[in-house]
Amino acid sequence: MSKNEDIAALFNQYVMHTYSPSVTLVRGQGCKVWDADGMVYLDFTAGIAVQNVGHAHPRVVQAVSDQMTTLNHCSNLYYTANQALLAQRLVHLSTLEGKCFFCNSGAEANEALIKLARLWGHEEGRYEIIAMRNSFHGRTLATAAATGQSKIQQGFDPMPVGFTFAEFNDLESVRKLVNERTVAVMLEPVQGEGGLLPATTEFMQGLRALCDEKNLLLLCDEVQSGMGRTGHWFAWQQYGVRPDAFSLAKALASGVPMGAIVASAKLADVFQPGRHASTFGGNPLACAAALATIDVIESEKLVERAQEAGQQLRESLMAFVEKYDQLLDVRGAGLMVGLVLDKPAKDLVTKCREMGLLCCMAGEKVVRFLPPLNVRDDELEEALDILDDALDMLYGEEAEEAEAEETPEAEA
Fold first, then answer.
1. Is 0.85 surpassed by the pTM of this model?
2. What pLDDT digit, counting tens, does each position of 32-89 carry?
3. How many CB atoms are closer than 10 A to CB 95?
4. What are the CA-CA distances from residue 224 to residues 135, 159, 219 (Å)?
5. pLDDT of 345
6. Cα separation of 102 and 105, whole Å?
7. Which domain holds residue 174?
8. What is the pLDDT of residue 233?
9. Do 76 and 177 sit in the same domain of this protein?
10. Among the three residues 267, 299, 331, which one is the final residue of a domain in this structure?
11. Which has the minimum average pLDDT: 6-15, 232-241, 338-347, 370-379?
């Protein structure tokens, strides 16, 4: 047996099967990872939009190492400088002029958004949140209940109440759901697990106007799209609107588990001591990683790089769409890119992995590409070459047959 197979056997014996892993990764550097048998891969999954500055960035490694030798945890019973500094950076980057709450994951961050909204509307008896169909907000009971995909909720009945679902990018469907119990509208500016589908500017601006009209909160889930991924620090910034609060996680601390919410001034003091908490949230180690991550994104101009490289990637993928009938569209924003197929995407994802390119699915029929924001041009080209070969192996014969059928008609 190979080392990959040895570890897989041990894993399958002792770890609950909540995922279906493929290979055993043992090392990462920049945009590349190595498996237990020594094979090298271009990582266009990046830990599912976590490694925005690449694997083992030296500035993040140094910050975490230094912090680990001094103070890695002390609980939120005490002040720590890193947490205060990180909150200041996030508030300034967002321009929301409010405050932050720190936790450990995206699900916890979205749970905090939900609790914050309910607490804000409690005295008026308002607690319902309008979420979007095809959304994904997490795996806790509340965030699963807020997710607009029934498969996430199956088997966990009864689900928490207080969530209704509108059609994404359909303002009128949101308006119809507003009632005397409604407290907020919650959405991903770019739906991630739902297939890399961005909100339209008309929809986002319409939501902001509707929330202002009805005195509702606008809550944005930036767990996957935040920290420069879409070519903006936060995806909502591209729409000319400001939410009342938004969530972060994934890339926030470059793989050190961390989540956060950033709230505007009107929500900044809704949580008071005893109303919400997190033992590990905002500890010095995670905050050191997050501060270093922000420094890297700023100094290496990775927000701008995400725009530039994302445009290059989308244009190249569109060339494949024109070539293969099985490919329908390319969508997303920045380096959060989806290739839409007319069939399940699993075979293409598997073939790419076998050939040295890691990508993942978003829903059943979308291949998701999430490379580090500092991916080099030559790495983009190498990934596209691998994808080209994989597409040819899977669909090339069908493309050739279709071309052959069209040729006689064209000549006639």
1. yes
2. 999 999 999 999 999 999 999 999 999 999 999 999 999 999 999 999 999 999 999 9
3. 11
4. 12, 24, 15
5. 97
6. 9
7. 58-299
8. 98
9. yes
10. 299
11. 6-15
pLDDT of residue 237: 98
Residue 265 DSSP class: G
CA 101 – CA 247 distance, rounded (Å): 9
328/386 same-domain check: yes
Regarding whether 308 and 209 lie in a shared domain, the answer is no
Backbone angles phi and psi of 230, in degrees to 5: -95, 10
Q: Are residues 50 and 114 in the same domain?
A: no
For 144, 146, 147, 256, the CA distances from 150, given in Å and listed in that order, are 9, 10, 8, 30
Q: Name the domain count of the chain.
A: 2
The amino acid at residue 53 is V
* CATH number, domain with residue 83: 3.40.640.10
How does strand 25-29 pair with strand 32-35?
Answer: antiparallel
Tokens found for residue 15: 């770890």
| Residue where the block lists tokens 């949140």 | 129
Summarised one tens digit per residue, pLDDT across range 157-205 is 999 999 999 999 999 999 999 999 999 999 999 999 999 999 999 999 9
Residues 291 and 358 in one domain: no
Which residues partner with 164 through β-bridges? 130
**109 within 8 A of 281, measured Cβ to Cβ:** no
CATH of the domain at 373: 3.90.1150.10
Average pLDDT, the chain: 96
Does residue 89 contact residue 298 with C-beta atoms inside 8 Å? Answer: no
8 A C-beta contact, residue 342 and residue 395? no
Question: Measuring CA to CA, how many Å separate 143 from each of 106, 115, 117, 140, 285?
Answer: 10, 11, 13, 5, 26
DSSP strand pairing (360-361 vs 366-369): antiparallel
Say yes or no: 40 and 113 in one domain.
no
Q: Do 39 and 179 have their domain in common?
A: no
196 and 80, same structural domain? yes
Please say if the pLDDT value at position 222 is more than 60.
yes
Long-range contacts, stretch 168-177, CB < 8 angstroms, 24+ apart: 168/132, 168/133, 168/134, 168/135, 168/194, 168/197, 168/199, 168/203, 169/197, 169/199, 169/200, 169/203, 170/203, 171/202, 171/203, 171/206, 171/207, 171/210, 174/130, 174/207, 174/210, 175/210, 177/130
Terminal alpha carbon distance of the chain: 58
The token pair that represents 299 in the structure block: 């100094």
**Adjacency order of strands within the sheet including 327-333:** 327-333, 336-341, 366-369, 360-361
Among 244, 271, 299, the domain boundary falls at 299
Q: How many whole angstroms separate alpha carbon 266 and alpha carbon 120? A: 10
